[in-house]
Design brief:
Elements (H helix, E strand, L loop, with lengths): L7 E9 L9 E10 L4 E5 L6 H9 L6 E6 L2 E2 L10 E4 L11 H10 L5 H14 L15 H13 L6 E5 L7 H18 L3 E5 L2 H7 L2 E6 L2 E6 L1 H6 L4 H6 L6 E7 L4 E4 L2 E4 L11 E6 L5 E2 L7 E11 L3 E8 L2 E8 L8 E5 L6 E4 L2 E2 L1
Parallel strand pairs: 3-8, 3-9, 6-7, 7-8
Antiparallel strand pairs: 1-2, 1-4, 4-5, 9-10, 11-12, 11-14, 12-13, 14-20, 15-19, 16-17, 16-19, 17-18, 20-21
Helix pairs in contact: 2-3, 2-4
This protein binds adenosine-5'-diphosphate and magnesium ion.
Magnesium ion binds next to helix 1.
Length: 361
Amino acid sequence: MEDRMAKIDLSEISHTYNPLDSKPTYALNPFSMTWENGKRYAILGPSGCGKTTMLNIVSGLVRPSKGEILFDDNPVTDLKTEDRNIAQVFQFPVIYNTMTVYDNLAFPLRCREFTKEKIEERVKAVSDTLNLSSFLSSPARKLTADQKQLISLGRGLVREDVAAVLMDEPLTVIDPDLKFRLRRNLKEINEQYKTTLVYVTHDQNEAMTFAENIIVMDQGEIVQVGLPKDLFERPKTTFVGYFIGSPAMNLFDSEVLTDFEVKVESIKIKTNSNLSKLKDKKVKLGVRSEFIDIAENEGENTFKARVNRVEDFGNFKLITANIGSKVIKSKIEREKPVTEGQVNLYIPPEKCCVYVDDKLI
Ligand code: ADP
Ligand code: MG
């Protein structure tokens, strides 16, 4: 394949590791998705939700139980990894210890018979980006664990001819400062070379700071695909609301009162959601602590809450309070005074997310 990048389609894919069992369990439930050329994606979800399985299906390490993978509309489902033009970086370094750093980085290019000049140019570019230039002539075994992982990363990035670089929690063994810089470097590489990058992580901050598109997974399902802003403001399920954001989204068991109102404890809260078909139903009201503020006066969607704790985080204050038996968290400007004991809190109707069976309506 000369053409270096590809649109990647996952069509009606599902996967079980125990297909012969009378009741197979599915690591991935049926889904379809497209990864566009040259974009940055993060696959985000807790351990065991199917992230690695999804990545290995794209690279060819795992053959899906059902469905097809297409690169630029050509089926590759039956192609081996070597024939797919994919670079994959794993959680732990995969390098040749006895070779020099230079030879490790050059290896994927030598295998494909690039010219000596081209190899030199690419190894230089990648080693500069990853701060490995001064180690090029050292044997790889002499490097520290995180430098070894940089070599792994470099081997993934050195080829310009790949359809995508797939990275499975690649920075786990790397210290936080370096992690931050590397994510920025990866972004630059993506912008400069337009290489499709797919980054798997269980860490929301890594996902948010790296990707334009975040794929959130939960128990073998893709629960939401979107920009960081979408996941933050309109989580499609209570799981996303809970998993994304710090603190997690406030979620209250509540009852539908009127077309647009719910009741939390004894408080009426107006929302912007049409609830006319859900009269008397049990729902969950979700509101981010960032959108709940202290109000001076009483009024619509304003209620009294008992303050339990006020934490000063420097750039904001986090109030933990009670309404009846329920705990509510509110992030407020650090300059705002908080009266002891009791505060008036205000929830804007347009910031209310209402969930039925844990799904956003
Ligand atoms: P993640 O990368 O998100 O932690 P995985 O894709 O590794 O999740 O795993 C998804 C599910 O599939 C888990 O329940 C895991 O136990 C199971 N699983 C993963 N690999 C295998 C395997 N080789 N054989 C059997 N079950 C597996
Ligand atoms: Mg994994």
